[in-house]
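Students often ask what a holo structure prediction actually looks like on paper. The answer is less mysterious than it sounds. You provide the chain, you provide the ligand, and the output is a string of discrete structure tokens encoding the 3D arrangement of the protein together with NAP.
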Amino acid sequence: MSNLFDLTGKVAVVTGASSGIGIQFAKALAEQGADVAILARRYDKLQEVSKEIEALGKVAFPVKCDVTNERDIEAAVNTIVDKFGKIDILVNNAGTASSGSIETLTEAEWDKVMDINVKSIFLMSKYVVKHMKEKNYGKIINTASILGAVGSKNAPLHVYNASKGAVINLTRGMGTSLIQHGITVNAIGPSLFETEMTKDTLFNEQYLKVYNAVCPAGRPGKSGELNGALIYFASDASNYTTGQILFVDGGWTAI
Ligand SMILES: NC(=O)c1ccc[n+]([C@@H]2O[C@H](COP(=O)([O-])OP(=O)(O)OC[C@H]3O[C@@H](n4cnc5c(N)ncnc54)[C@H](OP(=O)(O)O)[C@@H]3O)[C@@H](O)[C@H]2O)c1
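The corresponding structure tokens follow.
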């Protein structure tokens, strides 16, 4: 039982690791023993995160990659496999949000959010799964959202709803197809956590008052509160769990 969550010797890839939840995920995986390749567009930020991972005694590998660009992704995956020889864990975490309803969103905003939040998971997984299949082992974890399962009456986020709904059912589709190859695919559905994405839009007094009144926990999530779900899905503790969505949301989706 004590070794069930140990990631020593594993190689993890985390997208969107230059900020917010991705940094937390990369560090949590390193704390459990994994070496971690971290991907994002801002290389300077990735270098800072690398230092934090290395301070934990693990290998960090920063790779500049736009996860909407197939050529970038193919090159990034090849570089990581050349360096480490394998990829055990893929965390598809990069994401963005665009507030607004179907009446106010532009086509460009729609396409951008769908590309970053959904197409990226398709492309990253396409290039990583072939290496996982060779080893008959893999753990894919997608960052979804409560807003892929429910709406948000007080702050319309319609393209975000559509994108995270797609992440949830893509997780089920991939999870059921890939388990026969020893690869599990699961998703984490956070509610509200303070990051670059949310700090200016949702972390204001007016919105938090509404959020705290609705959320059974009466507060947003704290840094580190997603890590338990991540390590469960990233480790052998979840070998018979696939296609599942774990909402880490202070009870929001249970109301
Ligand atoms: N914070 C919340 O309350 C919350 C709730 C539910 C779900 N989520 C989800 O959690 C994930 C992480 O979000 P966060 O809150 O940590 O936001 P964040 O701080 O804004 O981080 C977003 C990350 O995605 C990366 N990214 C965006 N577009 C990219 C692209 N084209 N190519 C490569 N990387 C890209 C960014 O890196 P670069 O800009 O350097 O490329 C950054 O590292 C997202 O999927 C988000 O939808 C967040």
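The first helix runs from residue 20 to 31.
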